[in-house]
Amino acid sequence: MEKREELYRGKAKSVFATDDPEHLVMLFRDDTSAFDGKKREQLERKGSVNNKFNAFVMEKLAVAGIPTHFVRLLDDRETLVKRLTMLPLECVVRNLAAGSLCRRYGIDEGRVLSPPTFEFFLKSDALGDPMVNEYHIHSLGWAEAWQVARMKELTFRINDILTPLFLAGGMVLVDYKLEFGLMNGALMLGDEVTPDGCRVWDRDTLEKLDKDRFRQDLGRVVESYELIGQRLGLRFD
Ligand code: ADP
Ligand code: UDP
Q: Would you identify the CATH topology of the domain 85-220?
């Protein structure tokens, strides 16, 4: 497999073509951003930590029967993935209230959401990723009805796999964002599952271990990402 030109440079990752039209190389950079890209920093080793973290979680999901784009780790920062046509939507699942849900509805952080709740956001940096409902998605053609149903089904199945995995490591998986795409008519999980797109708290102390450490200037961001991985059973060496 030969790496070719950079097709897309996002806020945290770059995507490269390969000599095979069905595969891409995803490069995890050290760039870290929050608040729609307004806060930006380079966090040394974050790319490498997230690359390994993502591979670990994607493999767990695949074993549990979730279709994903993950093929294999290539090196410290790069992963080979299936080339998807991404749907322009972010799927957020929430087990506990935090972040924009608290701000929007005026509720306390940490309130248990029973059952877990689900939100679609339109992937648009220019618009600040607004929340959208299923009628918007259908009327504006962002996804078909079966794709909406499948995204929700897979998101909740993923939540049923990941929630106990984190709990076993003494952590609460508060909320996270997933992105899906299409390949040959099949819908599968794309992008990444890393602490950059999740909220994870220590089960006993409720200490924040995820990207909120970056958003709120709590320090030791990458060390904390590594700690989450280690508590899930991942070895970084
Ligand atoms: P952003 O675009 O939000 O700045 P990233 O820096 O993470 O995000 O860039 C990665 C980009 O690659 C995202 O736009 C994501 O939708 C896209 N992507 C993820 N997985 C795939 C895939 N398998 N095929 C094609 N594009 C993908
Ligand atoms: N999230 C993300 N990318 C986005 C928006 C949200 O990864 O563009 C993740 C975020 O890290 C959190 C969850 O989705 O784990 C819910 O985010 P929320 O809507 O609360 O937004 P925030 O307050 O984090 O901006």
A: D-amino Acid Aminotransferase; Chain A, domain 1 (3.30.470)
Cα-to-centroid distance, 20 and ligand 2 (Å): 33
Q: Which two tokens stand for residue 4?
A: 């070719």
| Domain boundaries defined on the chain | 3-82, 85-220
Predicted structure pTM score: 0.98
Residue nearest atom 2 in ligand 1 by C-alpha distance = 10
Which atom of ligand 1 lies closest to the CA of 15? Answer: 12
CB neighbours of residue 127 within 10 Å: 10
pLDDT digits (tens, 9 = 90+) for 141-150: 999 999 999 9
Question: Does the structural domain 3-82 have CATH classification 3.40.50.150?
Answer: no
pLDDT digits (tens, 9 = 90+) for 31-60: 999 998 899 999 999 999 999 999 999 999
CB neighbour list of residue 140: distance below 8 Å, 6 or more residues apart: none
